[in-house]
Amino acid sequence: MEDGYQNRTAFIKGAKDIAKEVKRQASKKVGRSVDRVSDQYSKRSYNRFEEDDDDDYPTQGSQDGGYYRGDSQAANDDEGGHSDSTEGHDEDDEIYEGEYQGIPRAESGKASLAGGPGSVTAGAQQFTDIGVSEAERRKDQEELAQQYETILQECGHGKFQWSLYFVLGLALMADGVEIFVVGFVLPSAEKDMCLSEPNKSMLGLIVYFGMMVGAFLWGALADRIGRRQIGGSIPIVFSYYSEFLSQEKRGEHLSWLCMFWMIGGIYASAMAWAIIPHYGWSFQMGSAYQFHSWRVFVLVCAFPSVAAIASLSAMPESPRFYLENGKHDEGWMILKQVHDTNMRAKGHPEKVFSVTTIKTVKQMDELVDTGTDTPVLKRYRLKIMSLSQQIRNNIVACFNPEYKRTTFMLMAVWFTMSFSYYGLTVWFPDMIKYIQKQEYESRTKTFSGERVEHITFNFTLENQIHLEGHYFNDKFLNLKMKSMVFENSVFEECYFEDITSTHTIFRNCTFVASLFYNTDLFKYRMVNCKLVNSTFLHNKEGCMLDFSDDFNNAYMIYFVNFLGTLAVLPGNIVSALLMDKIGRLRMLAGSSVISCVSCFFLMFGNSESGMIALLCLFGGISIASWNALDVITVELYPSDKRTTAFGFLNALCKLAAVLGISIFQSFVGITKAVPILFAAGALAAGSFLATKLPETRGLVLQ
């Protein structure tokens, strides 16, 4: 009997190896539909082998809806894990000869390439099996959600969650810094890099395009390969943290986590104010390359990202992700770590983690098994294609009938809030700069018809307009020209040396026998000018920076943003304390309505101090809406689609930000009414749609 069993085992093992090779070869010749039906056929055949083996060697089953830790892998294999390796068994546990060549047996129920009644029956059976598997998977997810909530209650909330809170806070802080850094360096970088107005505008928007692509990509990947080991902070940190929080703690502590975005803005504002205006923090290599302090600021802004990466290496993967993907032991070990860490910190190290088995979810798809003999490049290409297909399926699943209405509602709310918030927050500083510019231009001095001879200018010339002047044998030495305009003027036998200019232009002027030595008065500063026997020697290359010229303006920009981000603090505190008491929808809709009303006060902002006060008011109110929206988005989707949906919606948010910024900026200096009406209308629409979303307070995490 033992010899018979060994022969049978050898036969089964050989059949598996042969069938695996057959499947690899056949996959090159037949279509995807045939492969799918083949998988179902081979799965049913292999199940019969397992039933025979079970008669000889009974195995330990599940208990209370879960699996024993030692049998978790075997349980997952029973649910379809071996379907890839059992192609080619017929009804009598014998391999049909034609199957060695990839030809399906007529009576086996496989779909034929030619179609016909057999293929229709097989196709119907295939969809039936898929429907049954999906129903089983959904049932497993519901059971896991309930059991997981009970386990988190036993683990408690303590040292582990707070440690993870600060680590993920660094990642969110880094994202907040990234939003502000371009706006802070742009006034300096545009001079250092000689940026034109179109390029300057594109540089300001490109960060949002990058975040849009990153949110979409990393969010989708996090549902397939894990939360911890990849980038893309905003789409992932909220989902990651929520999967360690019990129901009664989730709303509050996710809102506390949002505070780190504000801290990132404060950090960026403080560092910009402390570093960028200090023009002495620089060096240059000749006149072509200059390393100014704004580049130091960019390096300093990378510190939160580096700290987040280093800290995340000490944090575990989400146990919910492991359990959703059938990895029982890994998930159990992490939950035990959470329990033990919290109990030791609370002074109860003797408490034992009582959970022995946890429900895992039935797996429906796996990455392609390409085999070891497949070329490396082809193997990776197939894996990437398989991963891309799974990501696409996850995105499409967000628009299935079960989630379609929720997804479209959230898309509308995310879009309207982002359009108004980012549009207004960028429009505020631009309006302040426009007010400053108007005030500056009001002090402009105009000189007309002057004649200047044999004079040496060695002092700063600023904010002046000279019309139809005549300059003879004058010297301009070691000076700065700021916002100077010379129009219809004549320069005869003049000498220019060591000149640095900003916003200076010569229009319709004539230069006769004049010499330019070591200046930045390039020909592009001379519009429709005539040069007669004039020479340019040793021109200053690149764009020269002079931070002392714009110190007050820089101080104002950084100080305004510092106050704007600091004003968010009260809104963060209120939303965190009330999120679990009044509910997500009331917080979201109520804050949006109040933000909408506050927009109309912008009509009365005609001074710098007035605009700053209104900026702080709007930011402090609207932050509660963002916190509620983050929480409700996390809670409305199941674990296997959570970061995909969050990433997609966050990408839409950045697209709306680009549109809002572009539209609102186009009205600076023209009218205030249109941007205000746009923002108020968008917020009103968003608050109305928010009331149509389902309330998630008090529900277990799907």
UniProtKB/TrEMBL annotation:
Residues 22-92 are annotated as: Disordered. GO terms for molecular function: transmembrane transporter activity. One of its GO terms (cellular component) is neuron projection. The chain crosses the membrane at residues 164-189, 201-221, 254-276, 296-315, 408-428, 555-578, 585-605, 611-633, 645-667, 673-691. Residues 32-42, 79-88 have a biased composition (Basic and acidic residues). It comes from the Eukaryota. It is a multi-pass membrane protein. Keywords: Cytoplasmic vesicle, Glycoprotein, Membrane, Neurotransmitter transport, Phosphoprotein, Synapse, Transmembrane, Transmembrane helix, Transport. Residues 445-536 form the SV2A/B/C luminal domain. One of its GO terms (biological process) is neurotransmitter transport. It holds the Pfam family MFS_1. It is found in: Cytoplasmic vesicle, Secretory vesicle, Synaptic vesicle membrane. The keyword Transport applies. InterPro entries: LD_SV2, MFS, MFS_sugar_transport-like, MFS_trans_sf, SV2. Belongs to the major facilitator superfamily. This is SV2A/B/C luminal domain-containing protein. It comes from Etheostoma spectabile. The lineage of its organism: Eukaryota, Metazoa, Chordata, Craniata, Vertebrata.
